[in-house]
Amino acid sequence: MLSYVARRGLQSLIALMGLLVLVFFLARLTGDPAYLYLPLDSTEAQRAAFNQLHGFDDPLIVQFLRYLGDILRLDFGMSLSRNLPAMQVALEAFPRTLQLAVVAMTLALSLSIVVGVLAAARPGGAFDRLGTTASLAGASAPDFWVAIVAILVFSVNLGLLPTSGTGSPLHWIMPIAVLTLRPFGLLTQVVRGTMLGVLTSPYVKTARAKGIARRKILFVHALRNAMLPVVTVAGDLAAGLVNGAVVVESIFGWPGIGKLMIDAIIRRDFALIQATVLVTAVAIFVLNIVIDLIYAALDPRISHQAG
Amino acid sequence: MTGARTPLVAVENLTVDFHSGAGSFRAVEGVSFHVDPGETLVILGESGSGKSVSSSAIMGLIDMPPGEIVTGRILYEGRDITHLTEAERAAFNGSKIAMIFQDPLSHLNPVFTIGWQLAEVYTAHGKCDRAEARRRSVEVLRRVGIPDPETRIDWYPHQFSGGQRQRIMIGMAIALDPKVLIADEPTTALDVSVQGQVLELMRKLQREDGLAIIMITHDLEVAASMADRIVVMNQGNIVERGEARQVFARPRHAYTRRLMSALPDHDAKAERPESTAEPILEVRRLTKYYGLPAGAEPRPAMKPAVGDVSFTLRKGQTIGIVGESGSGKSTIARMLLRLTPTTSGEVLFHGEDVLAMDRRRLLAYRRRAQMVFQDPYSSMNPRMSVFRIISEPWIIHPDILPKAKWRDRVAELLGLVGLRPEHADRHPHQFSGGQRQRIAIARALACDPELIVCDEAVSALDVSIQMQVIELLADLRERLGLSYIFITHDLPIVRDFADRVLVMKSGRLVEEQETEALFRRPREDYTRMLVNAAPKPKWEVEPGAARPAERAATERVGG
């Protein structure tokens, strides 16, 4: 198993290298930062001096090799806009995103498992129809719209919740609710669908013949088998959240990595773009390895020893 | 009913319907039977006869809806158990009546250890705590013949062989000492050598515990070896019932007589003279290692899937290749048609090396050598009409037939395999399993082949249908001068059909003989075991005495 993690780590490293190259050159397509950071009436000479100071006047390949060299010394460059080490800024923002993501995913998973399993237990029943409608609505409602309407209703009209920012527990409610909605909707659909299939499987019949209580058949015998596709989809959704829920963080002014990334792109803050992408990429690689390990834990027939 | 005594389980006048959007389907109608302590009742029938429905009703396993018990009731020691509440049902199942099923792999939960699944029976019925349940589980595993149960209790189902899985299922069923065991086709998915061991285990438990067994099967020999009494079902009705011996000796109903005629008769037949026709296929030292890159030398520790198999097929001849699962018989079929690469060896078709053919020659060869697969359900595109299925080879080989003649030829081929011309416009799902296999044969014939490789071509079919398909193949052999390679796990089936038989075991050719000689004078122990594997009727064996052959088999634990 350790060797599996090591092998996956190595593969991720190669992918990471490719990503670094891509992001480095793409970032430089966003334009010349000197125009943004110097006053509008700055002279050609001032801009040249700015570029020389930050090394933007060297050929791209030289800049890239210097960037690689710096990374090896764990120096990820200075953020132009904040005047702080870029990695430090990214690592400060990331936990705030992670907190949102973990809470939202936990909520979405628990809710969708309960609703999905109970819906599949009596397909076509009242609870099934209610749950299916709710999950479809959750899966299809655009989050930016839900976020804005929520602000309008709960903050502007009712004055119950703060519109944006952080600070009190109240600040958490709306971002988490909005972030939970879509994963809840999608996961409920997946749980219900796979449970319907699993409940017709022969081993469920065996459990009934053994006289196992229905609740245990649903939530132990069947659910454990239905979890594999759920984990796949949940992993995908979690990657989206870790990536920074860009829209939701922007709307609620949540200082997470998604908002930071957008700000860095708008400000042509090359070092910060690279640092944020690197952090989220590593997080997603780790997430994927964890999901593979969860697979193996859920299904003993999957082995990471060979192949 | 036997006098005033209350039977252990009685099914009275049971009628079950299944409702669907397309209408209602009556699965069983007015079915009554009973079973007494210590006896075995066999419910015999082919697929679709409704034989499993009544036992599912006893266990409360029929989903309602779509199922509906229209009339009748089920009594356990005189108590009506037709409609129990969920809690009553959970308390009843497993403790009073237990059930085992056909395919033990899919009926065991793949993600829990067998120990967990076994111990759960005790804890769910509140018999004892987890630690005690585990101790008892080890004992049950030992009793059903799982070697080293202390270790294996923590294994998962996929780590056991088929026979062991069925032993585990049986162990789970008898864990709480139920009075009745319902066995639904318990040995159908198992190799013949394992089948006898599992049946003997069931008989042993019956002797020791006085268990009543309700056994559902389509297999006449299995039925004969287990039954005290028999109920024969056809299309949802009981057509015959009685003492097993009587039913087998003097079947009264026409359907039962037809079923019995499918039993292979053991009368000696004339040995066939050695064919001297020209060889059409010569196979020399055919060997296959899986997972070996082309050109690499196998390491000594590696076991070949097929090792050093040689034989010669002559024109008009049929060679049966017989072996249990994992013997390499299907790998041979795939190598012969170059559907899988060969590690080493030669396949000569009319003297030309098949393995060295270029694309063009290979296409021509594949036209001459056709294949019929086991599963007629999945080897046909469900969206194609029968006409398209049969005429498809003519698109691939345009020189066979001009398009104008396709209709007539399809009609002709359908007639040849015993179907009607108007069947050409139907789709595969509108046919029964046997009819689909006829369509598959017609498709193979469309290429005017010389050789047809049948890979378990009748294994998925009911016994009476098996005989019809084999008769069809034999008839076509006479009329069209075909040669066959007939691959099967069922040795008796080739007795009337094959000229020579090759017996395979673990990738090796164990024995090759002229068919009748092989049945009469098998040279190898393994062949002898296969020849004698068919279970003997219960009444031919001394009551209470274990059969010598099967006792020997049970002692080789690990089945």
Q: What would you say this structure looks like, in words?
A:
Chain B: Residues 9-260, 281-531 form the ABC transporter domain. Chain B: One of its GO terms (molecular function) is ATP hydrolysis activity. Chain B: This is ABC transporter ATP-binding protein. Chain B: It holds the Pfam family ABC_tran. Chain B: It is found in: Cell inner membrane. Chain A: Pfam families: BPD_transp_1. The complex is a heterodimer of chains A (307) and B (559). With 307 residues, chain A is mainly α. Chain A folds into two domains: 2-72, no CATH class; 86-298, MetI-like (MetI-like fold), CATH 1.10.3720.10. Chain A is 76% helix and 0% strand. In chain A, helix 5 (86-121) runs antiparallel to helix 6, helix 7 packs across helix 8 (170-199) and helix 8 packs across helix 10. Chain A starts with a helix and ends in a 9-residue tail after the last helix. Chain B has 20 helices and 20 strands. Chain B has helices at residues 51-59, 86-92, 104-107, 114-124, 130-143, 149-152, 162-174, 192-209, 220-226, 244-249, 254-261, 329-336, 359-368, 386-396, 406-416, 433-445, 463-480, 515-520, 525-531, 548-555, and strands at 9-20, 23-35, 40-44, 67-76, 79-80, 97-100, 180-184, 212-217, 229-234, 237-243, 279-288, 306-314, 318-322, 344-349, 352-353, 369-372, 451-455, 483-488, 500-505, 508-514. In chain B, strand 19 (500-505) and strand 20 form a beta hairpin. Chain B is α/β, with parallel strands linked by helices and 559 residues long. Helix content of chain B is 35%, strand content 23%. The two termini of chain B are 38 Å apart. In chain B, helix 7 (162-174) packs parallel to helix 8 (192-209) and helix 15 (406-416) crosses helix 16 (433-445). Mean pLDDT of chain B is 87; it is low at 544-559. Among the domains of chain B are: 110-177, no CATH class; 316-340 and 356-533, P-loop containing nucleotide triphosphate hydrolases (Rossmann fold, 3-Layer(aba) Sandwich), CATH 3.40.50.300. In chain B, the strands form four sheets. Chain B has a six-stranded mixed β-sheet with strand order 6-7-8-3-9-10, sandwiched between helices. Chain B is globular, with a radius of gyration of 26 Å. At the A-B interface, helix 9 and helix 10 of A face helix 2 and helix 4 of B.
